[in-house]
Amino acid sequence: MRLTTAQALVRWMIAQRTELHDLTEAPLFPGVFAIFGHGNVLGLGTALEEHRDELPVWRGHNEQGMALAAVGYAKATDRRQVGVATTSIGPGALNLVTAAGVAHANRLPLLLLPGDTFTSRAPDPVLQQIEPFHDGTASVNDAFRAVSRYFDRITRPEQLLAALPQVARVLTDPADCGPVTLALPQDVQAEVYDFPEALFEPVVHRVLRPRPDLRAARDAATLIKESSRPLLVLGGGVRYSGAVDHAIGFAEKYGIPVTETTAGRTLIAHDHPLHAGPLGVTGSSSGNELAAEADLVIAVGTRLQDFTTASWTVFSPDVRLVSVNAARFDAVKHGGQAVVADARTGLVEFQTWLDDWQAPAEWTARAQTARASWDAHIDKLRAPSDTLTYAQVVGMVNDQSGPADYVMTASGGLPGELIGGWRASGPATMDVEYGFSCMGYEIAGAWGAAMARPSGVVTTLLGDGSYLMLNSELFSAAFAGHGFVAVVCDNDGYAVIHRLQTGQGAAGYNNMYADCRTSLAEPPRVDFAAHAQALGCAVFPADAGSFPARYAAAREAAAQGKVAVVTVRTHPSSWTEAGAWWEVGVPEAAHRPEVLAARAELDEAKSHQVRYLRQP
Question: How far apart are CA 319 and CA 608, in angstroms?
């Protein structure tokens, strides 16, 4: 078929299919987010217009925002579908880099198609070309190499034949999943080639389920049988594998308490008797108590990031670790027993060797008794007060949410409130982007999630800082008719970083508005409701008394395809504490004695840090 490079790429994307967890088929690429410029409007833009009914195109208003929406879409479909974003060369392309970082850190698929400069170099230097003095082959798109799982620059049309299988591999492989960047020079987009018709035949991509090495599985099962206080830690890999029922069934069969990471949050129902509560700095005191007592941790589908492990102080120094992960890169970390496998097949394989083994009944019961104490603590934090706290906002949203609903956040203090305080009633109710902790994901990601989830209400919670960082996709979603609720909590600045700053002995500086430089006696304040209304949103200003009713009204508006924004003032210094430590860079020299005292506390805490686990 004689096609341009752009036409061939679009036809190939349309031909790619995916198998969902319920075994039904859907498009692997359900749509494209696009902002057109001179580097993509004629080549790729023309090809997309030719297939506008087969591959929908959604217009964004900030390149970073629309790519984050693509990430949110992938997360909401458990990595079974992939969002695509295209831009021109130059600043538009570079605006995608942050979203690539989010996808890379969170192991989420994302296809980026930035335009690139002419391969012929005949018109050089062209508009938006940076011309590196040291490398004639480089462009701004080389910045993507550090944040792409796969990077390629298509300099001849026929190179697609070799590149596209690699694109599909990375986007659908549970071990290598992450962002792919195909840089597309604008002259090459328009060049033709006789492509083989086989390139455009439909292909169905299914969940890969690599089985573990039998010896590794047997050795891991031996460690489990030798333990008396095992703890099952469920990560995002359990969700992406579709292994939720298998993981919970495994815990039930052997009486193993369960805790969750950030990406694994809400995999187990809150009131399940084996649920010990979430783990880590933003987790729960109950989950952390069991982690400290455990003699074996079975970590499934998680890379055990610092917030999950409390910078590696949440576990006993003598703990053993069994790590089940599709990616060997993650499985071998920290000196544990690596079981490289799909979450589902790994857990099934263990049962071959465990026979009739059971965890001691008194240990099994610890999950429920410990979590009851944490629940009582959260109940106190949710009690009414004159000024709403984050915990109260989360509780009120939680009270009105059901199993089909979806709640999100990304940065600031809200991740700790959602992870620690949310009470799940279903297995797929939360997306906390705390791998990259990207301010602005809350709104853009919610747009993508609302597109991906035809039932239930998507609610995103964010602070005033994130709202001001990236709010343009409120209009994108409102214009497109993808309804969701955004709860904007205004607490006068970057309150959680102020907390970190002053909590380590530093003076409050440049975070809360009261500590920021201004030449005005009365500087302006943002009217978030008026701003959101100007972007086409339905707005619901609220206070402590009216919040439940205003949020209920916002949910009704979102169900009708509107973007509904609830604005509320929140307390700047009330937080949910899980009682875990987190390592940050406290200076060894400072003019404030409070900083030096905090440094001494850090040095003492580091003495309890597990650097490498005891070998099996």
Answer: 13
